[in-house]
Design goal:
2 copies of one chain form a homodimer. With about 160 residues, chain A is an alpha+beta fold. Chain A has 2 domains: about 80 residues, Winged helix-like DNA-binding domain superfamily/Winged helix DNA-binding domain (Arc Repressor Mutant, subunit A, Orthogonal Bundle), CATH 1.10.10; about 50 residues, Ferric-uptake regulator, C-terminal dimerisarion domain (Dna Ligase, domain 1, 2-Layer Sandwich). In chain A, about 35% of the residues lie in helices and about 20% in strands. Chain A contains 6 helices and 6 strands; from the N terminus they run H-H-E-H-H-E-E-H-E-E-H-E. In chain A, a hairpin with a 5-residue loop joins strand 4 and strand 5. In chain A, helix 3 crosses helix 4. The interface between A and B is medium-sized, with 35 and 35 residues. Strand 6 of chain A pairs antiparallel with strand 6 of chain B. The first copy, chain A, binds a DNA duplex (30 and 30 nucleotides) through helix 4.
Amino acid sequence: MRQGYGRGQGRGHRWGRQLESSGIRPTLARELVFSVMESSEGHLSVEEVLQEVRKSEEGIGLTTVYRSLELLHSNGLVKKLDFGDGRAVFELSDTLSGKGPHQHLICRSCGQVQDLTGSPVDKEDFAGSMKSFIREKYRFTTENMEIKVYGLCSECG
Amino acid sequence: MRQGYGRGQGRGHRWGRQLESSGIRPTLARELVFSVMESSEGHLSVEEVLQEVRKSEEGIGLTTVYRSLELLHSNGLVKKLDFGDGRAVFELSDTLSGKGPHQHLICRSCGQVQDLTGSPVDKEDFAGSMKSFIREKYRFTTENMEIKVYGLCSECG
DNA sequence: CTGATAATGAAAATCATTTTCATTCTAGTG
DNA sequence: CACTAGAATGAAAATGATTTTCATTATCAG
């Protein structure tokens, strides 16, 4: 990186609280990536994150964005999703976004992705009720559940 | 193909019933691919299908297996799944397998994939109850639902 | 049988992601 | 404050699944 990635923040004085408390060494690249994720409403592809990050620092490389996202993901700060088009997209963790647990409805016509929350079982906590159902019926311990519903949104239907 | 792919079956006398009635022109390659899918219990990767197919006909190419699976998939004879390891796997359609609608439980430890049927809502028809819930709440028309549950199976848990 | 059309296979092209490797930073330590 | 082992970075090369290209071969309606 041309200008050095520490850029005087010492031990996270300027940024880095979230990263440090997650046990991630705060660097400029990581901060920028996390900041982009934090300020985006929904999900972003790696390429999109790169674009955003480069608005602040041209020199950041694609590889580093991949690595940073992977790191944020393995530390639970961002979710990694796959909407079936052959590339990963990332979004802020449910906790950090304040959205709470949700799944996705993906329109095959316009491509729009909207959040799905609640369920016919428990209006609030779908994952919870599925988990206990699965535990009881299969003795399988659910760690992560991913539901993708493909179809037509209200606009396209 | 060295020996010609019709190999004397005329209009599906030997095989090809299923394919013909689905509007797919029956060829040796397609029949072999479909036959492999039919006789396999669960899901197979493209490479695995190729292996099996080549036990009957060495000359079959990988490209053709890709194309055949895609064709069978777009005609509803096989399902195309993604267990998150970067490659597609295919399995016989729920109708043809007689399994009925099901989702998957994927163990992150041993990699085993087991079928998930039923739900806390409707013991028999999970997808159905989700569909109506989604239609009512979001006015979204569900065409295909994919649920992947990652965790630990009873052996590994 | 025969020609128009479709299917096939090998090799090349794609494309997202990962790896390699030389360089640059960072966080202590003295 | 200088120094160094270890971590992070970026560019380029490698990977690996899937797709495309294109010349060849097979199919089937007439």
